Amino acid sequence: MPFIRPMGAAISSLLAFTFSFNAYADNQWLVVAQGEVVNTGQQLAFQIVKPPDTEHWPATVRLKLSAAGVADEVELALQDSSDQTLASRTYSGTPRQDFVGVVRAELVEKPSNTVLLLAASRDDTTSIVQAGEIQPADSVLASSNTAPQVVIAAPDDEPALSAEEPMYFLFGNGDEYGTDARFQISFKYRPFDSKGSVAQYAPFLSNLYFSYTQTTLWDIGGDSSPFRDTSYRPGLFYRWAGASRGLYPDSWRVGIEHESNGQGGVDSRSLNIAYVRPSWHLDFANGRRLTFSPKIYAYIDKDENPDIQHYRGYADWQLRYGREDGLMVTGLYRQGTRGYAMGQLDISYPLSDRILSRIGTFAHLQIFSGYGETLLDYDKDRDTQIRLGISVSR
Question: Which of these, 191, 233, 347, 378, could form a disulfide with 365 (CB 3.0-4.6 Å)?
Answer without folding.
Answer: 347
